[in-house]
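Researcher: Please translate sequence to C-alpha cells.
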Amino acid sequence: MQQSLTNPTTLPTYRTEPWDLLVQPGPVMATAIHAGHTIRDSLRRWLKLDDQGRLREEDPLTDFFLPAGDTIFRANRSRFEFDLNRPAANAVTVDPADTWGLQIWDQDLPQEEMDASLELHRRFYALMSERVEAMIAEHGQILVLDIHSYNHRRNGAEAPADPQAESPDIDLGATTLDKTIYGGLLEEFAQGLRSRPVGGKSPDVRVNVRWEDGGNFPEWLHATYGDAACVITLEYKKIFMDEWGRTADILALQDLREGFLAGVANARRWLAQSAGAK
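Model: Translation complete:
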C-alpha cells in the first residue's frame, strides 16, 4: 500500500544550515546568534520542551536588523542546539539549572549528539576568529553589534509587565567597552537609537541595566582582540512581539530598525573620524 504524501500527521524533514554569513567591505559586524529556531532532525526525538516554550526563550526577529552591518552573521538553529553565547562547557546542557528551570532535553541525550553540537560551537568561534582578524587587519578598529532580545512578561500574558525602571526598551551591554576609547561611539550610537520614535515616542535606551556582561561571545572578543574590537550587545525588550504567542508588531519592528540604522550611521561616522585622526 502506498503512503500518502499529504498525511498531516507526518512532519516533513528538511536540512537547515547552522548559520548564514555574508561578508562585505566595512568595519561593522552585526550578529544575531540567538535568532534561529530550527533543530536538526537527529535531535528532535530528545526535545522535552514544546515549540512555543522554546520560542519564548529564543530571540526571534533579531535578524531583522542585520542588513545594517557589513559582515552579517545569523544563526539558523536554536540556541538550545548549540548556544553560541556560552562557553563550550555549558553550550549544550541537559541540566534545567542552566536553562531557567526548563527541561529542554531528555536526560538521556546521547553524548554523540552533544558532541556534534559542540563541534558546531567550535566551528563558530574559529569562523569568528578568521573574520574578525581580517576586519581588524583592514580597518584597525571594528564595531561588533551582537543583537538579542529579552522577555518582560515572564509572569504570563495577562500579568503586568516588568517595571520600566528596570526594563529599558533597548538595553546596551557595554561591559567590555573602554569608555575612554569608545565612550563617544557608544553615546553616538545610543542617540541614533533614540532618534526614531517607536509607536510615537522616543525609545528608552540605557546602558548596562539588566546584565553584568553580554555573555561569552563579547567576553571572548574582548579577551582575544582587546580594544581593536568595540563590542556592544543590544537587548531589545520584546515590545515588538507577543512573547507568549506567535505574532509580531511589524510597525514597531520597522520603527526600531530605523533607529538601529541611524545608530549604525552615527557609529560609522565616529569610526571614520577616529581613523582619520590617527
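Researcher: Any highlights?
Model: The beta strands are 19-22, 28-32, 71-75, 142-150, 170-173, 205-207, 229-237.
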